[in-house]
Amino acid sequence: MKSFKYVLLGGGTASGYAAREFVQRGVEPGQLCIITSEAVVAYERPALSKGFLLADKPARLPGFHTCVGKGWERQTPEWYAEHGIEYMTSTRVVSADIAGKKLVLDSGEEVGYEKLIVATGARPATLRELGVPGAELEGIHYVREVAEAQALYDAIADCKARSARAVVIGAGYIGMEVAAALAGNGLAVTMVFPGGMLMERLLPPEAASFYEEYYKERGVEVMWGQRGAGFEGEEGRLEAVLLQDGRRIEAGMAVVGIGARVNKELFEGQLDMAKGGIEVDGRLRTSNPDVYAIGDVAAFPLVGYGGQLQRQEHVTNARLSAAHAVSAIMAPEETGDYEYLPFFYSRFFALSWQFYGTNKGKSVMFGDKGAAKFGMYWLAEGRVVGAFLEGGSAEEFGWIKAVALRRPEAPATEERLAAKGLAFAAAVAAQEA
Ligand SMILES: Cc1cc2nc3c(=O)[nH]c(=O)nc-3n(C[C@H](O)[C@H](O)[C@H](O)COP(=O)(O)OP(=O)(O)OC[C@H]3O[C@@H](n4cnc5c(N)ncnc54)[C@H](O)[C@@H]3O)c2cc1C
């Protein structure tokens, strides 16, 4: 059995940033092994629904291997080899033996560890598992891994050649980004989702309506209050999407973004679970002292939010939790609790927004929707606890981040806060400096 001091299970975004931190902290050649079922080494996953799908000069590997998302060195396969890191690609771990401190690979081989970091992320929830008729047809796409994004990209070209429509099912960030990319590629696009408004999990209707109008103006057909109830095809290939209300949309392709399932099954019954993932403490350590979990799979205590356990399926958490876990392993005396400020961003068409903190509480909108520059504050117990901004500059995004970090007292009235708008955040940031 091969054995390593450190094993990183999963080769996604968190894994790439963990590898960087190991190297920064002086891991020795031969001490670290990374195992991933993907055929390539770690990359910046958010690129798959953005730059990867662009009509013009799409992003391709090796261009977006980690850690270019932070402007740091691009870790190609050669980088891992140079640092003496053993990287097993196209290798699935099929079982884990926590008591015996070993993993079993799909080849039947075993890999032992002293410390294990679980970075298995998540996979798309599928309509097939929900039993939707026709969900197995060719032409129905999901996007999580680079191979899937490539298949989607090829399908776009095929649809274009056949002048066929694309249907996007789901209006979370994947649905929003993919629909924009498909429209940007010149396809006719219909979005179908069960809610009443795009982005309604994040934004209240007065802000969310902006996005619906924006998409419609760019030719995207928006069908809310609808689920993909079934698919029709011929010779195994998608021909139409069927809606709940009986309508039928002819389609050359469909892209499904209806949420994710956490890859935690290997550890069920062996590690404590919480919030649909693996429970960790402030040092990203699981219920077993030699096993850590990072990224999407980890349910960690959110400092500043009463230590509530939360999972965050966001790239910033993947990067920061990775570095924190490695620091906790290699420099325990200088590592405190993981302090994370919930953050999310997205880009579609010419739009770009950021969100910090929490969207629980009363919302107050500010700015100018007509100029595509507006924002939102959330108030709870007299404090501003979250902030969203569309169309901000880097400096302005920094201001709203300062608001969510400091949670300042709210002005006396909501009207006053709305009138102050971004100036309120600027003042908070100035106090921070
Ligand atoms: C298309 C897309 C766009 C996104 N855009 C944004 C965005 O704009 N902003 C944002 O904040 N977040 C975004 N995210 C979310 C972000 O990418 C994730 O939060 C991040 O990738 C999580 O990193 P991770 O390493 O925990 O998991 P992942 O990056 O998913 O990596 C998990 C890895 O583990 C491997 N693995 C799993 N099980 C096994 C096994 N048994 N054996 C071997 N290998 C295994 C997988 O193959 C994969 O390589 C996006 C996600 C997707 C899919």
Automatic annotation (TrEMBL):
Residues 5-319 form the FAD/NAD(P)-binding domain. InterPro entries: FAD-oxidoreductase/Apoptosis, FAD/NAD-bd_sf, FAD/NAD-binding_dom, FAD/NAD-linked_Rdtase_dimer_sf, MDHAR3-like_C. One of its GO terms (molecular function) is monodehydroascorbate reductase (NADH) activity. Keywords: FAD, Flavoprotein, NAD, Oxidoreductase. GO terms for cellular component: cytoplasm. Its EC number is 1.6.5.4. SUPFAM superfamilies: FAD/NAD(P)-binding domain, FAD/NAD-linked reductases, dimerisation (C-terminal) domain. Its cofactor is FAD. Residues 341-425 form the Monodehydroascorbate reductase 3-like C-terminal domain. Belongs to the FAD-dependent oxidoreductase family. This is monodehydroascorbate reductase (NADH). It comes from Ostreobium quekettii.
